[in-house]
Design a protein that fits this description.
It holds the Pfam family GST_N_2. InterPro entries: Glutathione-S-Trfase_C-like, Glutathione-S-Trfase_C_sf, Glutathione_S-Trfase, Glutathione_S-Trfase_N, GST_C, Thioredoxin-like_sf. The chain is of the alpha+beta class and 210 residues long. It has nine helices and four strands; from the N terminus they run βαβαββααααααα. It has two domains: 89 residues, 3-Layer(aba) Sandwich (Glutaredoxin), CATH 3.40.30.10; 105 residues, Glutathione S-transferase Yfyf (Class Pi), Chain A, domain 2 (Up-down Bundle), CATH 1.20.1050.10. Strands 2-1-3-4 form a four-stranded mixed sheet, sandwiched between helices. The radius of gyration is 18 Å and the shape is globular. It binds glutathione. The site of glutathione has 12 residues, from loops.
Length: 210
């Protein structure tokens, strides 16, 4: 059975969504990597020297990390569920492009946005706010445009990329980032959140307090 080490509401939860959508047997174990003496945290730090989740341990003991790889791996275990297009197709290359957008563009800029107030002087803070606001707005505008005429990032069908995007967009709340200017993104988040598989994972993980 696949084991997922995750942290509630972190990007690893998108792997929990993917496993639930895949409908395969799995075990999901929550880890608090900031707890030095916690045996699960110690184990995960050994499995992934980056000390980050997600960490997937496959049936044969192989370890897989990095959302783009873990989500694709889970999706490819169940091609009949169409959680990603078939490997080797142009549609899959387009999906990989959007996966990279979420993993390398959206994910880091929403995290970075939390740091916008870190300057030591008012002038420095104002400069950082302007800098981070511009960076995040450009990524959100790309996503808003993409969702203007399609319910999900790849089109009419939900994919594992959407579950990942939802988690990253959830962080707008603790980051103090308003999504009011992005109505398509707002309704997209509600649409994904309403999926029974997502609701099951939310219930299993428990509520998040930001
Ligand atoms: N590039 C990594 C990023 C993973 C990542 O940012 N994980 C965060 C949770 S969302 C984490 O484990 N953070 C713990 C830490 O930085 O100490 C991936 O895609 O898996």
């Amino acid at each position: 059975m696949i084991t997922l080490y995750y942290h509630r509401g972190a990007c690893s939860t998108s792997n929990h969504f993917a496993l639930e959508d895949a409908g395969i047997a799995y075990e999901a174990i929550e880890v608090h990597l900031d707890r030095e003496d916690d045996p699960i945290a110690q184990k995960v730090r050994k499995l992934n020297p980056m000390a980050m989740t997600p960490v997937l341990v496959l049936e044969d003991g192989e370890v897989l990390t990095q959302n783009a790889a873990t989500l694709s791996y889970i999706a490819d275990l169940v091609p009949e569920k169409s959680l990603l297009p078939k490997p080797g197709t142009l549609a899959r290359a387009q999906a990989d492009s959007w996966m990279a957008f979420v993993a390398s563009d959206l994910h880091p800029v929403i995290i970075e946005y939390i740091y916008k107030g870190f300057g030591e002087t008012d002038a420095e803070r104002a400069r950082l706010v302007a800098f981070y606001e511009d960076r995040v707005a450009r990524r959100l505008a790309v996503l808003e445009d993409r969702l203007t005429d399609r319910p999900y990032i790849l089109g009419s069908d939900y994919s594992v990329i959407d579950g990942y995007a939802l988690i990253v967009l959830n962080w707008s709340l603790p980051a103090g980032l308003s999504l009011d200017a992005y109505p398509c993104i707002r309704s997209y988040m509600d649409r994904i959140e309403a999926r029974p598989t997502i609701q099951r994972v939310r219930e299993a993980e428990g509520s998040i307090t930001w």
